Amino acid sequence: MDFWRDTLGAPTKIVAPMVDASELPWRLLSRKYGAQLCYTPMLHSAIFARDAKYRNEALASCENDKPLIVQFCGNDPKVMLEAALLAQDYCCAIDINLGCPQAIAKRGHYGAFLQDEWPLLHEIVSLLSQKLKVPVTCKVRRFESVEKTVDYAKMLVSAGCKMLTVHGRTREQKGPLTGLADWSYVKAVREAVDIPVISNGNIQCMEDVNRCLEETGAVGVMTAEGNLYNPALFMHQNPPVWEPALEYLNLVDKYPCPMSYIRGHLFKLFHHLLSIPKNNDLRIQLGAANTMDEFKRIVNVIKEMYDPFHLGAKLWQDTTKPNTENITLPPWLCQPYVRVCPEEHLKKVEENSNKQETKRQYEDSEGNQISRKKMKKLRRISRRPHKPDSVPLERNLVKCANCVNPLGSKCVYQLCKKCCKNKCYLENLDCAGHRILVKTRRETAKFYARKSNTTIDVLT
Q1: How far apart are alpha carbons 47 and 79 in whole angstroms?
Q2: Which DSSP letter does residue 111 get?
Q3: First to last CA, the chain
Q4: Mean pLDDT, range 181-190, rounded to an integer
Q5: What is the pLDDT of residues 59-83, one digit of tens each?
Q6: Cα distance between residue 44 and residue 65, in whole Å
Q7: 451: left (phi > 0), else alpha (psi -120 to 50), else beta?
Q8: What is the pLDDT of residues 223-246, one digit of tens each?
């Protein structure tokens, strides 16, 4: 607990590591709005170790960006150590990502797809904790059973993990199947280990923060999506979207980052506004924007459109759906994005599959199922008039006098093109049929050669 209390300053409000999203400008904005601890985006240890440019961009920071934890992913203990040694002077701790459930983590064999390989994970955590001068922390997802989740946490602690973030979802809970995180797993881990435990999942507003701390006993809460849609979440505020957007763009002016990061943040901040049909043009413009001036212009356009409603100069009459706090917030205020529950998603998938099954089936003359496109093609062919099978005409080929090749039909010497070309070259001839003009070109060359010599004589 000394590390959490003395080194990190006992943070309870934490912004999660987010790929292409928790870069320096966004971390500074989050800290302004109450975040007490931030992480870098997940960094690939192998690329970090060998690519200096990647390394410099990943470690971009400043004095106001503290405390900071650098997170790595990977599956090779030596490579992980090499990367961590290069980063340890720029952070308070090194975090190992054992919770990423995305397809890229599955292909790269890291993140949550290492959670069944306990000997390898024990080796990675143990090696880093022994060789680094900063503590090693881990971020994990739960298993299906509480017992296995607790044993997993104990294994990591025995290997040298000094702080553990537990996401209350399994690695299968992602995208439309995300659902709710189960805080009971976090509570079980917290009661079983003697290191700081942070709870991750279900944090959409400040009430969730307080309730999570009370129910789990965790020392802090971590949020990712909640922070992206409302960076002022930790201050119990719902500011108009253009305020954090303009502040973020001003920070980007000072600490540049890729345009794709900026576009991603603005899309999330403006999600509820851009979902309104009449704002489709703005959504298209934001997707195509690739300069800071364009981003600022779009933000100012949104401010001009909705600031009168925010100030009460105009009456907002359009209906909006209530958010998780059971109050109706107008779409220009920062607010959570609530996904459809997995059960409803699966129901829609089933309905769509049933529609596919009831679609009209097409068959060919032999009873085989074919596509609609193939059926249309067959119908076009069937409407064509029947043509008798034509017998190809046999060409009466006359062979060249000098070889077995057929002679050219227009050759004045009754030869194939190759033999005709050789004859013209040797005998200084032309063949109009093969368009071989050896004689003509030689005479033209001689003419210009004589003319050139005459000009030289005159000049001399």
Answers
A1: 10
A2: G
A3: 103
A4: 95
A5: 999 999 999 999 999 999 999 999 9
A6: 21
A7: alpha
A8: 999 999 999 999 999 999 999 999
Is 100 annotated as catalytic?
yes
- How many Å separate Cα 409 from the centre of its chain? 64
| 122 and 155 Cβ atoms separated by less than 8 Å | yes
Q: Which residue has tokens 């909640």? A: 226
Cβ-count burial 296-308 (b if 16+ within 10 Å, e if not): bebbeebbeebee
pLDDT over 70 percentage in the chain: 92
Exposed, middle or buried by CB within 10 Å (0-12, 13-18, 19+), for 48? buried
**Between 47 and 352, the higher pLDDT residue:** 47
Which residues are within 8 A (CB) of 258 and not within 5 positions of it... i.e. 6 or more apart?
Answer: 20
What is the signed CA dihedral for 212, 217, 218, 221, rounded to 10 degrees? 20
How many helices (DSSP H) and strands (DSSP E) are in the chain?
20, 13
Q: Which two tokens stand for residue 253?
A: 């002016």
Structure tokens at 386: 């029947």
pTM given for the model: 0.74
C-alpha distances in Å from residue 344, one per residue of 52, 178, 249, 325, 337: 47, 12, 37, 21, 16
pLDDT in tens, 156-175: 999 999 999 999 999 988 87
In the chain, the amino acid numbered 232 is: A
Q: Which residue has the tokens 């849609």?
A: 229
- How many angstroms separate the CA atoms of 186 and 189, rounded? 5
What is the band of 341 on the pLDDT scale with cuts at 50, 70, 90?
confident
Query: What is d(CA 20, CA 310) in angstroms, rounded to the nearest whole number?
Result: 31
Active-site position among 38, 73, 92, 100 = 100
Nearest Cα residue to 58 out of 102, 101, 20, 85: 20
